[in-house]
Amino acid sequence: MDALPGIVIAGASGRMGRMLIGTVLASDKARLAAAIQRPGHDWIGRDVGECLGGAPVGVKVTDDPLEAFAKARAVIDFTTPAATVEFAALAAQARLVHVIGTTGLEPEHLAKIDAAARHAVIVRAGNMSLGVNLLVTLTRKVAAALDADWDIEVIEAHHNKKVDAPSGTALMLGQAAAEGRGVDLDTMRDSGRDGITGARRPGAIGFSAIRGGDIVGEHDVLFAGAGERIVLRHIATDRAIFARGALKAALWGQDKGPGAYDMMDVLGL
Question: Cellular location of this protein (predicted)?
Fold first, then answer.
């Protein structure tokens, strides 16, 4: 059993943390090495299986990432930007594969993550699903085929507990559209319209966010031309698709050299 790669799950009590723990425990290709939760959380010191309402699994929740990383070969991290930056530095020191699904990362966070990738494998993606990454590829190709007379709008919907907007996946799609068109997304991005905004700027890539209920994740890329529209769509109905993708990335990275990778690399797209 110990020959299987040990996986650490950061943010064990969160929506994705719970799903990731279940996915690793059910896998015959990896083992759960540790589960991390923030200091002071009532799960600390308890068996993670019991925390999830099941039988003990022999892994206690810890608030010490150094202790956790010493037992493992990879960490999967869907937490917060500040926590992810801390985990990136520690994972690089331990030479662990670090799979990052955290969203809301700012340029200063990304710079620190890129620095850590000089010493360890980091796989970072706004979305870990096969379908979304295919959608990214299609978005880039369609954007490249259509000129600026076609307006591009990325529309995303998520549950009412999501704290950042646009979603990481929406930004992936917007970046793909910008690359297809050969423009800079930061320059052409159009978000948060409200009030008298004036006419749409030619060539702008727009973003719209919906928050409500328990929506797992829905993303549309709308290409709107004169008299016709093209809509590329992905709908996620089960959060397990992201957990399976993250575990696939953690296993894929085991024999790779240090560097920054994404799910396109993992999936060979």
Answer: Cytoplasm
Could you list the beta-strand ranges (E) of the chain. 6-10, 31-36, 61-62, 74-77, 97-100, 121-124, 151-158, 189-191, 205-211, 217-225, 228-236, 259-261
Residues 115 and 19 in one domain: yes
SS3 98: strand
Tokens 């979603």 sit on residue: 167
Query: pLDDT at position 45, please?
Result: 97
* 3-state SS assignment for residue 115: helix
pLDDT at position 1 over 80? no
Annotated catalytic residue 162: yes
Q: Is 103 annotated as a binding residue?
A: yes
Domain check: are 252 and 120 in the same one? yes
Q: Is residue 101 annotated as involved in ligand binding?
A: yes
Residues 61, 103, single domain; the answer is yes
Q: Please indicate if the annotation marks 11 as binding a ligand.
A: yes
Q: Is the pTM of this model over 0.90?
A: no
211 a known binding residue?
no
One domain, residues 90 and 181: no
The domain tally of the chain equals: 2
Q: What is the reported pLDDT for 158?
A: 96
Annotated binding residue 68: no
Summarised one tens digit per residue, pLDDT across range 178-230 is 999 999 999 999 998 889 999 999 999 999 999 999 999 999 999 999 999 99
Among candidate residues 158, 219, 234, 248, the one labeled active-site is 158
Q: Is residue 79 part of a domain?
A: yes
d(CA 252, CA 97): 9
Considering the candidates 60, 112, 162, 256, report the single residue annotated as catalytic.
162
